[in-house]
């Protein structure tokens, strides 16, 4: 079966991580990255990338991020700490 969405990849990632299946985690990182690039909400993409340690996807989402363009925070922001979010806002000043 193939991964069909960000949500699907996150569920699989959670299971692979829980059972410490390193090869599956690596594969899911590769699979999740294109989904994050296609995600319309860069803040959501960024938060997911931070959560799963996807540095390239995190950077790409940070470049697309514009503060104040979203009315509701994505639920994935709950997995990011305040320092990480602050760093995103600081990085916005450099793009």
Summarize the structure in short.
The chain is mainly alpha-helical and 95 residues long.
What are the secondary-structure elements, in order, as H or E?
HHHHH
- Overall average pLDDT: 91
Question: End-to-end span in angstroms?
Answer: 39 Å
Number of domains: 1
Low-confidence segments, given as residue ranges, are none
Q: What is the CA-atom radius of gyration, in angstroms?
A: 13 Å
Report the count of strand segments.
0
Level of helix content? 55-70%
Shape: globular
Give the biggest beta sheet: none
- Total helices: the number is 5
- Strand composition percent: under 5%
Annotation keywords:
95 residues, mainly alpha, 65% helix, 0% strand, globular
Please give a structural write-up.
- This protein is an all-alpha fold and 95 residues long.
- The protein has one domain.
- It is 65% helix and 0% strand.
- The chain has five helices and no strands.
- α2 runs parallel beside α4 and α3 packs antiparallel against α4.
- The mean pLDDT is 91.
Topology summary:
Layout: H1 6-18, H2 22-38, H3 42-52, H4 55-64, H5 82-92
């Amino acid at each position: 079966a193939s991964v069909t969405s960000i949500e699907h990849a996150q569920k699989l990632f959670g299971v692979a991580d829980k059972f410490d299946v390193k090869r599956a985690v690596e594969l899911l990182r590769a699979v999740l990255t294109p989904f994050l690039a296609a995600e319309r909400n860069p803040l959501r993409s960024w938060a997911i990338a931070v959560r799963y340690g996807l540095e390239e996807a995190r950077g790409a989402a940070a470049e697309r991020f514009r503060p104040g363009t979203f009315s509701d925070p994505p639920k994935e922001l709950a997995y990011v700490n305040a320092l990480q979010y602050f760093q995103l806002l600081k990085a916005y000043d450099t793009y």
